[in-house]
Design brief:
The protein is an alpha+beta fold. The chain is built from seven helices and ten strands. It has two domains: about 45 residues, no CATH class; about 130 residues, CBS-domain, CATH 3.10.580.10. The strands form three sheets. Strands 1-2-3-10 form a four-stranded antiparallel β-sheet. A three-stranded mixed β-sheet has the order 4-5-6. Strands 7-8-9 form a three-stranded mixed β-sheet. The N and C termini lie close together (about 10 Å).
């Protein structure tokens, strides 16, 4: 059986081979700062076909839905299109983005930590979390962004006793009883 312990110093001990340090989890702003300053957006009145074409051309899996006054309305993703339009046999040329976009997402603030964002994603079973500063939309954090941040900060997150190449390989296995 794998035993996981929360240590007083903020580390999580997952056995002899792995210790995670959650104290060094960055603020969401560290992720937003690394992302491009412009957003991939779509109008709620656009057709789903146009949104899918845009996602394909821009090589992205979601678009931020904003109105004519640049207000955040929601997010439309490939998953939304497949589950709400294609699965329901709706014509993509006749279905509007407003009909399939996700408007019930948890939100984070720029002061939240990456860990808090991860908790929101897990609690609400989502891959995208919009970020606000007051009422101003600042961006979207995706589960992929969090993975990239973890890889970027891997030496802060994964604590090892050895600094050699073998220190980067972790195996968690259960011994048979």
């Amino acid at each position: 059986m794998l035993e996981i312990k929360l240590l007083p110093n903020g580390f999580i001990n997952c056995g002899a081979d792995l210790t995670l340090n959650l104290v060094h989890m960055e603020k969401i702003t560290s992720i937003l700062a690394k992302k491009q300053p412009h957003f991939h957006t779509v109008s709620p009145q656009s057709t789903v076909k146009d949104a899918v074409n845009q996602m394909c051309c821009e090589n992205i899996d979601h678009l931020i839905v904003i109105d004519d006054e640049e207000r955040f309305l929601g997010v439309v993703s490939e998953h939304d299109v497949t589950s709400k339009a294609m699965y329901a046999n709706k014509f993509l040329t006749e279905t509007m983005v407003t009909d399939v976009m996700d408007t019930h997402l948890p939100v984070a603030t720029i002061n939240d930590s990456v860990e808090k964002c991860m908790q929101l994603m897990k609690q609400f079973h989502v891959r995208l979390v919009p970020v606000f500063e007051g009422f101003s939309f600042r961006g979207v954090i995706s589960s992929e962004d969090i993975i990239q941040e973890a890889v970027f900060n891997r030496m802060k997150i994964f604590d090892t006793e050895d600094e050699g190449p073998a220190a980067r390989v972790y195996v968690i296995s259960q011994s048979p009883r």
